[in-house]
TrEMBL record:
SUPFAM superfamilies: FKBP-like. This is Transcription elongation factor. Gene3D superfamilies: Transcription elongation factor, GreA/GreB, C-terminal domain (3.10.50.30). GO terms for biological process: DNA-templated transcription elongation; regulation of DNA-templated transcription elongation. It comes from Fulvivirga imtechensis AK7.
Amino acid sequence: MNQQNIIVEKNEYDWLLGMLENRRYTDPLNQSCLEALHKELKSAVVKEEFDMPRYVVRINSMVDVLTPYGIKKNIQIVVPAERNMEQDKISILSPMGSALFGYKKGDEVRWLFPKGKGKIKILEVKNAPKRVFK
């Protein structure tokens, strides 16, 4: 749905491809998000950890976004088992999580909101200096 190629760290790329191959998630919403993400992964720029740009949305990133409704939100993109809406932790498999993944600070990302299509702007991305991903 978006114009540019996403940037993905190699371990996260491999993990997501494994999820697609194993089809571990059977929920229709998760499957829909995985299929959309799979399309973007086909043309993704895959980088090693040390080559990853600082402000790219990754798993465990803290992200400040601006919705088309003018609402600023701070969310964290997490693996499905760690999602917690009360703590603003959203799954990589959710519509917003999969839409933001791989984009960077300043990007405007098209997203399907409950009221229709819109753009969500990435205002800030915070990543831990050293990451461990399994």
